[in-house]
Amino acid sequence: MNLDLTGKTAVVCGSTQGLGYASAVELALLGCSVVLMARNEEKLKEVLKTIDRSKGQKHQYLVADFSDTNAVKAAIGDFVKNNTVHILVNNTGGPPGGTALNAKPEEFLAAFNNHLINNHNLTQAVVPGMKAAGFGRIINIISTSVKSPIAGLGVSNTTRAAVANWAKTLATELGPLGITVNNVLPGFTKTVRADYVISAKAKAADKTEEEVMKDLVAEIPAGRIGQPEEFGAAVAFLCSPAAAYINGINLPVDGEIKLFVECWILDTGC
């Protein structure tokens, strides 16, 4: 099975922590040169030191705040002037919780800008290079809400579904060019964000963190929470030559969660 990504360049968004970082690590292990993209330059510099370089990879970073669509568009536009991007991993944190009915219109607009519009601008910038190279992989890290809406995440459910259908549409348009577009849906995974929400839930429910964790794990047939590298491995596989005939899918990496146990736990973003 050909998993070799030597000579390929990947832009990985939200890659200073969590699922974005795990994806960057796994891509580098397959020989890919990784361009980290996030808003905090100091964190980007630190993360840059930690990913594999054993195959001669040349890793870089781009600084951009995803709340500013113009900044994201400018950063990727400048980069592709002199570089070909073979792989794009779209990823950023989810919008705040709350019901759809009570959400303000500007909350929907902000979420669409952070996710759909940024994803679209990034994709438009990198596709010409992918087309010329005859190889392209676009991965969107979204949410298990694509399988079924999660209670209490009205804005997120709406936005994630839009991204999923945008991606499916692009998959049919770009497939003939040797470019695949797929979505990866995270379940409950061991990240800094997950640690935070477990702690918050424990305080709110007057339980210990161990009790909260036990309750959550009880809803996962795998009997445990996922590890970031397991999620990153799924992303990296879909980016590999071996996955050339996989296109337009929503891939859950969730241990097959039986119930959406808590909206703010599952929608972990980056």
What does this structure look like?
The structure is a single chain. By secondary structure, the protein is of the alpha/beta class. The chain is 45% helix and 14% strand. It has helices spanning 18-29, 41-48, 69-80, 105-133, 154-174, 192-205, 209-217, 228-239, 263-266, and strands spanning 9-13, 33-38, 60-63, 87-90, 136-141, 179-186, 250-253. The chain has a seven-stranded parallel sheet with strand order 3-2-1-4-5-6-7, sandwiched between helices. Helix 3 packs parallel to helix 4. The longest helix is centred in the middle third of the chain and has 29 residues, at 105-133. The chain is globular and about 55 Å long. The two termini are 29 Å apart. Residues 259-270 have low confidence and may be disordered.
Notable traits:
single chain, 270 residues, alpha/beta, Rossmann fold, 7 strands, 45% helix, disordered C terminus
Sequence-ordered SSE layout with sheet pairings:
Elements: E1 9-13, H1 18-29, E2 33-38, H2 41-48, E3 60-63, H3 69-80, E4 87-90, H4 105-133, E5 136-141, H5 154-174, E6 179-186, H6 192-205, H7 209-217, H8 228-239, E7 250-253, H9 263-266
Parallel strand pairs: 1-2, 1-4, 2-3, 4-5, 5-6, 6-7
Helix pairs in contact: 1-8, 3-4, 4-5, 6-7
